[in-house]
Amino acid sequence: SDLQKQEERGALLQPLIFVLLVLCSVLLYFKVSLMDPGFVKSEEEAGKSEEQSMVIPQVPSNIKMRRCGYCMVKQPMRAKHCQLCQHCVRRYDHHCPWIENCVGEKNHPLFIVYLSVQLVVLLWGGHIAWSGLNFERSWDWLQHNILLLMSFLLIVIFTIVVLLLLISHLYLISCNTTTWEFMSHHRISYLRHSELENPFYQGVILNLWRFFC
How far apart are CA 37 and CA 101, in angstroms? Predict the structure, then answer.
């Protein structure tokens, strides 16, 4: 009947979508981990200096670009040297050990997309694992379902971690600040000498628009 055909299509469509999401998550992982996060190159110094003075008028004009003591390039505002990558990164957020790369100006939006897809995959995987658990109070049941139970608990832990990471990043993006700036506000010259607590804040909607678009 038509109803049975629709049910069969739905039964095939859901696993297919799940596999595609997993594949998308893997591809995003490699893309974010292998791409240039925004390494500062010496030929970009002059252009970036002019650009930052036009884009960020709230920052005091006496804050000058400083030369990095490690790679000897002039750091644009919001850039930071990463000891692990051995490069200065524009709009440095953090070095992520999971992707073994910095999260910076060029790959930060894609990093958020990756986290979002990863969260959907984990929630879906958790639902599948939970639906396979029919709890019984017996040692025999535990022996037969221990791997599935451990998988479910592991998925729950990863889901909580990814969810908290995604929420914290979205909050910082809405404020137009980075993890490094948030954690080291008192040590960063252009924030410490600014009259405003956050000189880059331009409203939540505009902050999100400029970040993703």
Answer: 8
